[in-house]
Amino acid sequence: MSAVEIWTWALVILTFGIYIYIGYASRVSDTKGFYVAGQGVPAVANGAATAADWMSAASFISMAGLISVLGFEGAVYLLGWTGGYVLLALLLAPYLRKFAKFTVPDFVGDRYYSSTARTIAAVAAVFISITYVAGQMRGVGVVFSRFLGMSIEVGVIVGMVIVAFFAVIGGMKGITWTQVAQYSVLIIAFLIPVIAISLQLTGNPIPQLALITSDLVPRLNQIQVELGFNEYTQPFANRSMVDVIAITIALMAGTAGLPHVIVRFYTVPNVRAARYSAGWALLFISLLYLSAPVLAIFARTNLLESLNNKPIAEVEELGWVKSWKATGLLGFEDKNGDGILQIRGPKATDGIANELTKLDNDIIVLSTPEVAQLAPFIIALMAAGGLAAALSTASGLLLVVSSSLAHDLYYRLINPKATEERRLLVGRIVIFGAVVVAGYFGINPPGFVAEVVAFAFGLAAASFFPIILLGIFDKRANSQGAIAGMLVGLIFTAVMIVMMQSVRIFGTAEPLMGPFMGISAQGIGTLGMILNFAVTLIVSRMTPPPPAEIQELVESVRIPRGAGAASAHD
Amino acid sequence: MASSRKVAVVEGGEEMAVAYWKANLRLITILLGIWAFVSYVAGYLMAGMLSGINLGQVPLSFWIVQQGAIITFVVLIFVYAVVMDRYDQRFNVHE
User: Fold this and answer.
1) From which domain of life does this come (chain A) (predicted)?
2) Roughly what angle, to the nearest 10 degrees, separates helices A548-557 and A104-111?
3) Between A and B, how many residue pairs show a Cβ–Cβ distance under 8 A?
4) Average model confidence (pLDDT) for chain A?
5) Nearest CA-CA distance, residue B49 and chain A, Å
6) Helices A115-148, A448-473: inter-axial angle, 10-degree rounding
7) Which of A149, A245, A487, B45 has its Cα between 20 and 30 A from that of A458?
């Protein structure tokens, strides 16, 4: 066993032991504990839990890689996945906390006094969350297989057992405190290598300062141009401005509208804590999001410098090249037979073909410590961090699946007379079932999973965000408007995405539809959102206003007083 | 709707609640104005213009969208939380 494997085993066993202990210590005995952690989570802890809930395997493993390919336009992820918290903090979280129920469909169903609206919201929440969670379980499997040489299947099953343990016995309370621990693991795992590389490349331990003061950026821009790529920092070299704006809006509104993020704000003691915990959440998230773009620059520079114009025999001897080449995520070919690896961009004029044939985005983060020749301990830490990111997001999503099915559909619609014990039991059974389904999809990913994960934000932006927002800020919004708005937004967005992505979903030779008004599939949720707003506003005004008690409900969620006293089950 | 009745019991509760909501909306408008300006106007619409200006060794437009805007977002949320604390007290709607 290599030093890296020994360290990885040690860290995985240690961190998993901590998660299991925390899950056991925070076991719950009532539905309020199971769904909203007894509303007793302090603002800072909820901030850390939200950050872990939010930052998925994709944020940890793939984002810096994506940014390093996109350059300036990497902004869509950086701005989109952070800017949504401003919307959440100012427009949604405090009022939903005052409303003080268990789930997002709870708010939609009560505010729009409609079982139909509740059902649509619950089904949308389950659909978005279960596909998203499948991606997380897959991420767990990939980390296990890359770092410990296990098969992806075994890795997924290990992840399932761990998540099932603390989610079933601890519910939201167990998930919350485990997420706090997982945040600590993932942020340490992300920052230590970035700081180490920053020191190595620039002599400055603070990457954000190194970015401004060192010659990193001009150097990378120069290498890029020499090899026939665009300057790294050049705006809109890869995507048009219209598309970039639409994608950013869709990711921001989607962030604010994703049920697993919103429910985190149900767990704090009062409205004030909801506002502050949104701030803490974004502060904790920004530690990673302000470092990822710098890591992207380090990684791209390192990669180009350590591969380009190097003898292929020498490159093949590098440890990280060997192991990544074996996974099929990295590939090169000596096209001109000169024994030297040449990397060229699309604008290269020297007639030399690009010989780096395959470079998967996921390699960028995971290989960085090895490329920079950091200690085995740090490489192992990356594995533990990737697992923490995947498991924490998976558990938050599983709780949404469980609460939508067991609380919104079973208790609120099918069997309102169910006893507390029975509801808790159903909640536990459903979350266990959800873990099994998610694990199954993690092992046998259907083709659409990756697509839906990528487009979950567009769907959330086009469905939940507008009707929750109007539910608080527009007293006139009624059930007819909300149902029409939600359906139009969801259907429009889903149909457009499916048509634009038909090559990958149905295997058609050409996409059934190209970009719409210059907007690609990732940004189309923005149009769905605008449609939802328009339809809800117009239909509401053409139909009778909501009943007086609903208007009173809206007035009451606008005022903080009384949040502590509000009952979660009246 | 026990909680809304509770508000009305406080002296001048109804008027205070209306004034509180107006103050809240004004604050939200200002902060979201800054949010939109930093991300969409300074970050995207003015990107071409600002890429000629450097902050240290980095083009300003690049720094705004990959660093500056995120820092601004964090500050905006805490400003909102602190100012709303004051409003909660001033309009007597605190918990």
Assistant:
1) Bacteria
2) 140
3) 170
4) 89
5) 10
6) 140
7) B45
Q: Percent helix, strand, coil in chain A (nearest 5)?
A: 75, 0, 20
CB A175: neighbour CB atoms within 10 A?
32
User: B61 contacts in A (CB within 8 Å)?
Assistant: 72, 233, 235
Put simply, the chain A residues between 528 and 547 with a CB less than 8 A from any chain B CB are none
pLDDT given at position A514: 82
Q: Is the pLDDT of residue A12 over 50?
A: yes
Q: Do B24 and A558 touch (CB under 8 A)?
A: yes
- Ordered by start, the domain boundaries in chain A are 3-299+375-557
Beta pairing, strands A330-332 & A340-341: unpaired
Looking at beta carbons, which residues of chain B come within 8 Å of A286?
A: 70-71, 73-74
Mutate to test the interface with B, among A291, A559, A567, A569 (most CBs of B within 10 A): A559
Q: Do A212 and B55 touch (CB under 8 A)?
A: yes
For A218, name the nearest residue in chain B, comparing CA atoms only: B57
Q: What ranges do the domains of chain B cover? A: 2-90
Q: Which CATH superfamily is domain A3-299+375-557 in?
A: Sodium/glucose cotransporter (1.20.1730.10)
* Angle of helix A448-473 versus helix A548-557 axis, rounded to 10: 100
List CB contacts (< 8 A) between A278 and chain B.
77, 81
Report in angstroms the alpha-carbon separations of A165 from A103, A135, A160.
Answer: 22, 20, 8
Long-range CB pairs of B28-32, under 8 A, 24+ apart, other chains included: B28/A90, B28/A91, B28/B80, B31/A86, B31/A90, B31/B76, B31/B79, B31/B80, B32/A86, B32/A87, B32/A90
The pLDDT assigned to B7 comes to 45
Distance CA A564, CA A319 (A): 57
Determine contact, residues A227/A301, Cβ cutoff 8 Å: no
For A24, A382, A393, the CA distances from A186, given in Å and listed in that order, are: 21, 8, 12
Q: A196: number of CA atoms within 13 Å, CB side?
A: 17
List of chain B residues whose C-beta atoms are within 8 Å of the C-beta of residue A245 = 40, 44
The pLDDT of A152-170, averaged and rounded, is 87
How does pLDDT run across A425-465, given as a tens digit for each residue? Answer: 999 999 999 999 888 888 877 666 566 666 888 999 999 99
A75 touches B: beta carbon within 8 Å: yes
Q: Which residues contact A138 (CB under 8 A, 6 or more apart)?
A: A57, A152, A156, A442, A445, A449
Helix, strand or coil, per DSSP, at residue B18: helix
Which residue does chain A place closest to B82, by CA atoms?
Answer: A276
pLDDT of residue A562: 78
Q: In chain A, which residues have their Cβ closer than 8 Å to the Cβ of B75?
A: none
C-alpha to C-alpha distance for A195 and A206, rounded to whole angstroms: 6
What's the burial of A203, exposed, middle or buried (CB within 10 Å: 0-12/13-18/19+)?
A: exposed
Q: Evaluate whether A517 touches A242 at the Cβ level (below 8 Å).
A: yes
Residue A561 has φ and ψ, to the nearest 5°, of: -55, 135
Query: In this structure, are residues A168 and A375 in contact, taking their beta carbons and an 8 Å threshold?
Result: no
> Token pair for residue A160?
């399932």
